[in-house]
Amino acid sequence: MPAAPSDEQKAVYRQAFVRNCFILLTNGYARLKSHDLRNAEEPHITGEIVRCIREVLEDEKAEPWMRDFDIHDDPPQNVPTKFGKQRPRVDIEFIRVLRGPRPRLHIEAKRLYRSGSINEYYGDEGLGMFVAGTYAAGEPSAAMIGYVQTKNSVDWLGRLTKGFKRRVTHLSVCEMLRPAGDYQDIGAIHVSGHQRASAALGRIDIYHLLLEFL
User: Fold this and answer.
1) pLDDT tens-place string over residues 25-36
2) DSSP 3-state assignment of 189?
3) Torsion angle of C-alpha atoms 154, 160, 166, 171, degrees rounded to 10
4) SS3 breakdown of the chain: % helix, strand, coil, rounded to 5?
5) Which of 46, 57, 115, 187 sits at a 20 to 30 Å CA gap from 147?
6) Pair 142, 107: CB distance under 8 Å
7) Please, are residues 120 and 156 in contact by the beta-carbon 8 Å criterion?
8) What does the alpha-carbon distance between residue 53 and residue 142 come to, in Å, rounded to a whole number?
């Protein structure tokens, strides 16, 4: 019987999984006519991104590793005390299909288009869902996507960085927002570390990516 993977091996596997999720995400985004969605609501944009990612996965020229991935749009999450239609729904869920526990990457998306967008991105229904353990409770990492519909990604990254610094306590930050070095060939991906509300759940790393719809 093969030995169980070490914590270091688990971290390497997780990093490779997250990396592949971002490759699929950016490939799906590249198929969109992003300008046509410059005024669209978040569910509309998310639905179109997921549709395009499915096209990538089902393309006859898809790379072999892609056959082990699946993606879901707005799937309900099973959490204590919430049942049926009351269950919270994460915006995007990537799953790697294999025997045993299946790795998942939960992604929450927010529009960046007005002054209140920073509060929504970092709020209790944004990044706060991960800090509270409502989303990705069984995973060591998750992701936030900002749909940029005004200005540009550089401008909004500056706003998000300032907003992050003002919310260090509220977001239980244990590692400040910084570029994710191992992902820069994919996109301008950043990462931050947070201590979840439940000590049993421990730390969660949140990856951040901004996609332009201008």
Assistant:
1) 999 999 999 999
2) coil
3) -150
4) 35, 25, 35
5) 57
6) yes
7) no
8) 18
